[in-house]
Amino acid sequence: MTDRTAEFERWRPLLLSVAYRILGGVAEAEDAVQETWLRYEAAEAEPRAPRAYLAAVVTRVAIDVLRSARVRRETYVGPWLPEPLLADPYEDPERTAELADSVSMAALLLLERLSPLERAVFVLREVFDFGYAEVAGAVGRSEDACRQLAARARRHMREGRPRFAADRAEREELAARFFDALREGEMDGLRTLLAADVTVVGDGGGKTPRLARTVAGPDKVARLLTAVFPRMVRAGITYEPRPVNGQPGAVFRDRTGKILQTLVLDIAEGSVQTIRLVLNPDKLRHLGPVADAWEVSAEVKRAR
Prior knowledge:
By secondary structure, the chain is of the alpha+beta class. The chain has twelve helices and six strands. It is globular, with a radius of gyration of 21 Å.
């Protein structure tokens, strides 16, 4: 392994984490990191500050990809959700909770509201604590302009967050009660855990059976979950509670062990605010072999 290869591998987890937060997609983030390596490998001289150089390159690549991706998302079938991430490649023991919150589905959807430049500046500065000089070099703007972009991004992010966010212990305890109630089919118990305006959002991208209608409100959501989940179990579907995008969630598999969907709970103010399901097979392939959702749906319907 050459010195340049070793230096790149040292920073690869950081580059993947930056690119994923800007793009909201694992495959796109991996492609951006690969393009960053090709540019680094082709550079005539070794940069004096490899971390700043590589972060700048991956940011510029990700911004370009994001601008084209937004055009595609305008024609996306149904609700769009980020690709689920089961483990953040970048770890910082001193900032574990902050990094987990910044990669949550809720945070990534708030980032979607920002312009590509605002999003990049926010990720570099607020999430990964890059200095304004480094941020300016990455996005090609002055430091003063980056300060303004960061301030605007922080304001938008604050406005979209719940007033009373749950801490990690509270989220895990409430999620455990949620899955216990789901497993036991306790509709009343489940209903007490749901916010008054709780919703279920499913991203199938037009490639899987969709929810028949928008499901909102604790009564309707509890009724849906306690009606469908037992039939899924009878059809051989299993689920493994585990963090998804740093938040309580689960991975569902068909009877052969193939990935069917992921579920993530958005918990705040003492209740489940949103239940997000990613079913689009294109967004699940990085997790392993993907189940045929249409075939599984037919099996669930037969499992009365």
